[in-house]
Amino acid sequence: MELALSLGDPSKPFSFLDKTAKLSSKDLGFCMGLGNGFKSQENGDDAFEGKNSTDGDEKRVSSDPPLQLDLLPFSPVPRPQSSSQLRLPWLTDNRDAVSMDFGIRKGSRRGKKEVEVEAVETERTSTRASDDDDNGSTRKKLRLSKEQSAFLEESFKEHSTLNPKQKLALAKQLNLRPRQIEVWFQNRRARTKLKQTEVDCEYLKRCCETLAEENKRLQKELQELRALKTSQPFYMQLPATTLTMCPSCERVATASTTNASASTADAKTGGYPFFSSISNT
DNA sequence: TTCGTCGGATGGCTTACCTCA
DNA sequence: GATGAGGTAAGCCATCCGACG
């Protein structure tokens, strides 16, 4: 366990916590870092700068997330009033972009791969606290701020998936870990898909109901026609070609066209069985 | 206080791609 | 050059579970 303390320049706190809320060099601040066996500068920095793939790959000696505490002068970081103040990182040069800082947050349960891959990232996120106080038995859940969520939503509208560059840019801009951005997009995609599935399901259900109703109506019609047939034998004794009417559309076909276009009529009427039964008997 | 929903996080699996023998 | 094995990254999916109304 190591304890580091710095005064005066929070923008460059410690090697293992160097991804902090962006502060200008003019800002006076007090920064305290608490880590467990954090590594030396040369390792961590290289990892985060993308030396090895996207997310960095350096491993901390311990998986315990570090704690950094920033005590700053009054409102050192401008907070966005709305998402419109933020810019999508891949759309602009980000001159006006602001990064947000968050309160102390407890670490969360992570798999070993996550721990390894994200160790450096974790270290670099600002104002992060470990859950040392309760031995990791519980986890505090991060709740993204409205601004962050709105910004991510906007980003999602632009791209439902992110390339590593976009992910990193977003993470930097929102002061989150790239993994968090990734997870947010994954969950967003999943939930969008789920919503769409529900909509589709609802639509199919309505279709099914409509078809069932139509089927019922046609069955009834067929029954009526059969009844008509038995009650009016004379009607049916006429040559089939003289009266061929589809009861549903109430069109009467002529003698010549009926037989010639029987197959096409079937196709046009959807092959309703009663049509042919009338004309053929 | 309890309960249902939301949403951030995790682990496992699959797929695509790359490297190397 | 073609091919299979092994490694890695990324995405999807099911699930967990804390936060919150």
Automatic annotation (TrEMBL):
Biased composition of type Basic and acidic residues is found at: 48-62, 113-130
What are the UniProt keywords, alphabetically? Answer: Coiled coil, DNA-binding, Homeobox, Nucleus, Transcription, Transcription regulation
Q: Name the SUPFAM superfamilies for this protein.
A: Homeodomain-like
Q: Which regions form coiled coils?
A: 201-231
Asked whether the keyword Transferase is assigned, the reply is no
Q: What is its main location?
A: nucleus
Q: Which InterPro entries match?
A: HD (IPR001356), HD-ZIP_Homeobox_LZ_Class_II (IPR050762), Homeobox_CS (IPR017970), Homeodomain-like_sf (IPR009057), Leu_zip_homeo (IPR003106)
Pfam families given in the database record: HALZ, Homeodomain
**UniProt entry tagged with the keyword Transcription:** yes
Annotated compartments: Nucleus
Question: GO cellular component terms?
Answer: nucleus
**Span of domain Homeobox:** 135-195
Can you name this protein? Answer: Homeobox domain-containing protein
The organism is: Gossypium laxum
Query: What are the leading ranks of the lineage?
Result: Eukaryota, Viridiplantae, Streptophyta, Embryophyta, Tracheophyta
